[in-house]
Design goal:
This protein is mostly helical and 46 residues long. It contains two helices and no strands.
Length: 46
């Protein structure tokens, strides 16, 4: 807790070390965004 409060937490992972499987719902089913909007958001986040 003290390290977090001091802003001195160690870096445990670099972004390049992360891997993920994306799962999202579009407005083709029960989501609210279109497939295009989901793809654009993913590209902005990369």
């Amino acid at each position: 807790m003290q390290a977090a409060q001091n802003g001195s937490l160690p870096v445990l992972l670099e972004r390049a070390q992360l891997r993920a499987d994306l799962h999202a719902h579009s407005n083709w089913s029960d989501g609210k965004d279109s497939v295009l909007e989901l793809a654009q958001a993913a590209m902005r986040a990369a």
